[in-house]
Design goal:
The chain is mainly α. The chain is built from 4 helices and no strands. The longest helix is centred in the C-terminal third of the chain and has 24 residues.
Length: about 90
């Protein structure tokens, strides 16, 4: 279920703010969104997997904190990433 290195590099290249950027909030939010989507599909098939559900809730909380941070720092960057990833306000 983890991302392959090619998938991860593709997401990083799409959302990086400068060359070699791997830790900006945009990149972290995009990577978490991808993992959250995959885990959501897994949980639709495996309803009773409570350990994975706990991990999913942890990832959602981490993404929410990153989104809130980005919103407080730069609203323009926040709106572009929220629009691109279809995140709710």
């Amino acid at each position: 279920m983890p991302l392959t290195s090619d998938q991860k590099q593709e997401i990083i290249k799409k959302y990086q703010t400068t060359e070699g950027d791997t830790g900006s909030p945009e990149v972290q939010i995009a990577l978490l969104s991808n993992r959250i989507g995959k885990l959501t599909d897994h949980l639709k098939a495996h309803i009773h997997d409570t350990h994975s559900r706990r991990g999913l809730l942890s990832m959602i909380a981490k993404r929410r904190r990153l989104v809130n941070f980005l919103k407080s720092v730069d609203k323009k960057r926040y709106s572009s990433i929220a629009k691109d990833l279809s995140l709710k306000d």
